[in-house]
Amino acid sequence: MSGQITTINPATEETLETYTLMTNDQMRDAVRACHEAFLDWRLQPVENRASIIRAIGQELQNSKEEFAQLMTREVGKLIGDSRDEIDLCAQICNFTAENGPKALADEERDIPGGTGVVHYAPLGVIYGIQPWNFPCYQAVRYAIANLMAGNGVLLKHAENCTGSGLFLRDLMERAGLPRNLFTVLLIDHDQSDLVIEDDLVRGVTLTGSDKAGRTVSKKAAEQLKKTVLELGSNDAYIVLDDADIDAAVKACVAARIYNNGQTCVNGKRFIVTARNYDAFVERYAERMGAIEMGDPTEDATRLGPMARDDLRDKLAAQVEESVEKGARVVVGGKVPDRKGAYYPATVLVDVKPGQPAYDDELFGPVASIIRAEDDEDAMRIANDSRYGLGGGIFSRDEDRARKLAAERFDTGMISLNGFNIAIPNMPFGGVKNSGYGREHGGFGMKEFVNAKSIYVMDKKADA
Predict the structure, then answer these.
(1) Edge-to-edge, what's the strand order for the sheet holding 236-239?
(2) What does the pLDDT look like over 138-176, one tens digit per residue?
(3) Angle at 227 between CA 224 and CA 387, to 5 degrees
(4) In whole angstroms, what is the distance from residue 388 CA to residue 382 CA?
(5) For residue 1, is pLDDT > 80?
(6) Origin, by domain of life (predicted)?
(7) Percent of the chain residues topping a pLDDT of 70
(8) Which residues contact 461 (CB under 8 A, 6 or more apart)?
(9) Would you please indicate which residues are annotated as catalytic (active-site) residues?
(10) Has residue 400 got a pLDDT over 50?
(11) Each residue of 346-386: pLDDT tens digit?
């Protein structure tokens, strides 16, 4: 074990900061301190918790530019996307503060001979393992819901955005969150297993790959601890016979390159019926080919670097393997000769099963266009995946598209005639190898609570 974490700017390759990993004793002390903070926090009225969460949202806005610049330095996000991420996190705080007290209020039900009360009690310390692609949002998404529920929160953030995790901790405490209630653990993977095993940790949530999900859920299951998993996907966006092609092309380009192509719910497979295939490929390739790579700190830049060199190299290898197995590059497809973890906007066609571009998640600005015979075949191909996080349908017949989304599309979130990533009042999560459990929309507040049944029996009159 090196004992240190070093963060590097993926656009300039410059070293940003070096952090010292915790010892095992320091890690255990941090978990214990979080638990101690939870013991007080759980007794706070939900309205008091909501007030502090609302203050966190305001402090996010107050600190937006500083936080956004830090995220862009650490992971190469476009500065505009970083600012938008902070705005989304503030909206999550506001939604949670507004709706949390009602969602977590006691419910009374009629029972024979008395009244039943359903009380949502916090479980305790919840451990979150989060990735780098949204340094603020990934942590806020689970942390704010669990803080509202009365839990304590631990965060093991991705190493390359360690500074963002610590910035968020300090920001929350400036807003009035009790010290240690949101604790950032600077630990390695072996130490992470010890955290899961700790008796004071009552639940585990992870956002990451399906491989990481299997590893973490197995470790948690050995301890009989609940998990919520939000894993990867190769989301399908379906262009049906009656689609508005120009609108579909525009939305599908945005769906692929948003956040430099590094989003779990980005569009990745674009399934187009034979009637529209040639026109879609031509117009889509033209738009993607016009996207130039640039400095992510510049407002005009449309595509920045990937977050690390190794992630860029993995993506390049997936493209090369897909081409070796029959795919064809229409635009992009070559690692540029320049400093930084850059990869160009890329379009692949002739994409078939057995290629990474069809079967796997390409986590970067690479689009896989797949030809379908007709609408029915397009739905079949969309569901021909081990994943099921997001997706989209383009059709002028909104009622039909809505029916297909509800009844036929085996995935967690579906955009009709557009592209969305996350909205605070709508549930977020997937099916199949994309994980289980839901966040946002009030659902996350009840993932790690004890729904207690309290039976209040009527007093019998004295004889």
Answers:
(1) 328-331, 346-349, 366-372, 269-273, 236-239, 391-394, 415-416
(2) 999 999 999 999 999 999 999 999 999 999 999 999 999
(3) 130
(4) 9
(5) no
(6) Bacteria
(7) 99
(8) none
(9) 230, 264
(10) yes
(11) 999 999 999 999 999 999 999 999 999 999 999 999 999 99
**The residue type at 216:** V
Stated length of the chain: 463
pLDDT of residue 459: 81
Instruction: Write a three-state SS string for the chain.
Output: CCCEEEEECCCCCCEEEEEECCCHHHHHHHHHHHHHHHHHHCCCCHHHHHHHHHHHHHHHHHCHHHHHHHHHHHHCCCHHHHHHHHHHHHHHHHHHHHHHHHHCCCEEEEECCEEEEEEEEECCEEEEECCCCCCCHHHHHHHHHHHHHCCEEEEECCHHHHHHHHHHHHHHHHCCCCCCCEEECCCCHHHHHHHHHCCCEEEEEEECCHHHHHHHHHHHHHCCCEEEEECCCCCEEEECCCCCHHHHHHHHHHHHHHHHHCCCCCCCEEEEEHHHHHHHHHHHHHHHHCCCECCCCCCCCCECCCCCHHHHHHHHHHHHHHHHCCCEEEECCCCCCCCCCCCCCEEEECCCCCCHHHHCCCCCCEEEEEEECCHHHHHHHHHCCCCCCCEEEECCCHHHHHHHHHHCCCCCCCEECCCCCCCCCCCECCCHHHEECCECCCCHHHCCEEEEEEEEECCCCCC
CA 225, CA 127: separation in Å to the nearest integer? 11
Whether 177 and 147 have beta carbons less than 8 Å apart is answered as yes
The CA R_g of the chain, rounded to the nearest whole Å, is 23
* Residues 6 or more apart in contact with residue 115 via CB below 8 angstroms: 108, 109, 456, 458
| Euclidean distance between CA atoms 336 and 319, whole angstroms | 14
- Residue 283 CA to residue 273 CA, distance in Å, equals 15
- Cα separation of 304 and 289, whole Å? 15
Average pLDDT over the chain reads 97
Q: What is d(CA 384, CA 381) in angstroms, rounded to the nearest whole number? A: 5
Q: What is the per-residue pLDDT across 9-49, written as a single tens digit (0 to 9) for each?
A: 999 999 999 999 999 999 999 999 999 999 999 999 999 99
Contacts (Cβ under 8 Å, ≥6 apart) of 74: 7, 9, 16, 132, 135, 160, 161, 162, 163, 164
Q: How far is the CA of 145 from the CAs of 141, 160, 349, 449, in angstroms?
A: 7, 25, 41, 11
| Model pTM above 0.90 | yes
Instruction: List, for residues 78-125, the tens digit of each pLDDT value.
Output: 999 999 999 999 999 999 999 999 999 999 999 999 999 999 999 999
